[in-house]
Amino acid sequence: NGRYGNIDVFAFACTSMSIAVGTDLINDLLKEGCCKNRDDIVVINMADAIVEAIGVVSGGYNRICLLTPYIDELHQKTKSFLESCGIKIEKNWNLGLETDSDISSVNPEWLAEYIEELVEKMKKKPEVFVICCSAMRVCGYGYISKLEKRFGVRVITSNQALMWYCLVKGGISKDELVKIHGYGSLFSGV
């Protein structure tokens, strides 16, 4: 029904650009460029999806940690954005990587070991560990659930959050969401 057929949700999948350009502007541009005159299509962006996902799994927790692969300036913008949304970041780290190819080259197993080192150094274990960037290879089947089990911490990643938010905004029920395994507590009906 229309130019794009039977679409319920149109999503913008880049965390850093969603934040750098601004989530409202990204949504307006999506609506204008792709979904003009279509009130039946929901537009979302990755940064808003992360905020929503953190809200679902955090349950008011205060020990939220943030890891990005970004250079310091972009990392600080990401941290500031999350804090402006009412998210209290207790600890944060960035890898200082400059290009998408560098970011997507990060080995997921190395990253898991790195996160383990970060968590072990903390006096109190975080309650939610957020990994921002759609180029990070941290959303393969089973990866997030393995991290959560390994560290005893709820994990949110950019791609996981966007996938979840698209499904929620597309009308999938909580009963259907809990049938999706391997992508962490976000899907398990926390």
What does this structure look like?
- This protein is α/β, with parallel strands linked by helices.
- The chain contains nine helices and six strands; from the N terminus they run E-H-H-E-H-E-H-E-H-H-E-H-E-H-H.
- The strands form two sheets. Strands 4-3-5-6 form a four-stranded parallel β-sheet, sandwiched between helices. The chain has a two-stranded parallel sheet with strand order 1-2.
- The longest helix has 14 residues, at 108-121.
- It is globular and about 50 Å long.
Q: Can you give the mean pLDDT?
A: 89
Which range best describes the helical content: under 10%, 10-25%, 25-40%, 40-55%, 55-70% or over 70%? 40-55%
What is the number of E strands? 6
SSE string, helix = H, strand = E? EHHEHEHEHHEHEHH
Strand content: 5-15%
